[in-house]
Amino acid sequence: MEEKEIKETLEKQLKLLSERSQNAVEKELEGLSEAMVDIAKLLICL
Question: 44: helix, coil or strand?
């Protein structure tokens, strides 16, 4: 997978997590937030 494809995939995952967090119950928010931060960090590094 090329770097561009990796970035696109990570951006899609970040968007899906963001959408999921809109309807998440409180106990799910921590995990969703952590996953979103991890993806954002990866995107910054690429």
Answer: helix
**pLDDT tens, position by position, 1-46:** 899 999 999 999 999 999 999 999 999 999 999 999 999 999 999 9
Cα gap 35→31, rounded to integer Å:
6
Long-range own/partner contacts, residues 32-38 (CB < 8 A, 24 or more apart)? none
Rounded Cα gap, residues 8 and 12, in angstroms: 6
Q: What integer pLDDT is reported at residue 4 of this predicted model?
A: 95
- The boundaries of the domain holding residue 29 are 3-45
Give the total number of structural domains in the chain.
Answer: 1
Largest CA distance in the chain: 36
